[in-house]
Amino acid sequence: MKNMRYLIILVLILGGSQIMYGQIKLGVTMGLGPSHIDPGELVVDNINDSIRYSITNVRPVWNLGTFVHLQVKGLYFKGSFLGGFSYLDYDKTDWRTGENNLRNKREMKYQIEVPLEVGINYKRMLLSGGIMYSNLLRPEKETILSLATLNRVFDNDNIGYRFSIGMNFDWASSLEFSYVYFDNYTDTIAIDGTVDYNFSYNRRHIMVSFTWNFIREGWE
């Protein structure tokens, strides 16, 4: 909570300074990272212990969204809003008969991520760090606005940290590598349209992001 307040204060300072003598970028960003779930390690049983769901394959997560970059001299703030998707394959086995009646059935996973970072821009190099909110989005049950309410954001374990290093290019774009970690990330998987499995784990991964700036004010 304190980290969030400090970042908001810094955004206001940089935003006000930018109007006078700062710089701003607005654009789109796309990223790719590994899945948060390891296949073969997750087995879900239904309530009467007759059906087993086992994860067999999980695809990487793609993120697509928008960002704002506010900079005063070499110090900057960057905030992004990202929508992500992936999918997993699973097997469904009936323990009573031993029959595998659903092999490699596919389920989509959707999520939102909001990284807020402060950093240093030295020549072409970018170095930043901050906090990141991440949560699973269930379109049939939840909206983005319901996930963004303060009680949902601060009452669960979906706030982590992100550290990034990257490079600016002359053609209005940048490439960044980010390390993301959560101490106790909470997640939910919907399996077979009926089984909701809630679990927590230590989440660590590297994300590769490419940004394209549509608006550049204050740069020569």
User: What is the second-level CATH architecture?
Assistant: Beta Barrel
The helix content is 10-25%
Q: SSE order in H/E notation?
A: HEEEEEEEHHEEE
Which band does the percent of strand residues land in? over 45%
Radius of gyration: 20 Å
Describe what this molecule looks like in 3D.
The protein is mainly β. The protein has a single domain, classed as Porin (Beta Barrel), CATH 2.40.160. Helices cover 13% and strands 65% of the residues. β5 (75-94) and β6 form a beta hairpin. The protein is elongated and about 70 Å long.
Topology, element by element:
Layout: H1 2-21, E1 23-33, E2 43-45, E3 51-58, E4 61-72, E5 75-94, E6 100-122, E7 125-137, H2 144-147, H3 150-154, E8 159-169, E9 173-191, E10 195-217
Antiparallel strand pairs: 1-4, 1-10, 2-3, 3-5, 4-5, 5-6, 6-7, 7-8, 8-9, 9-10
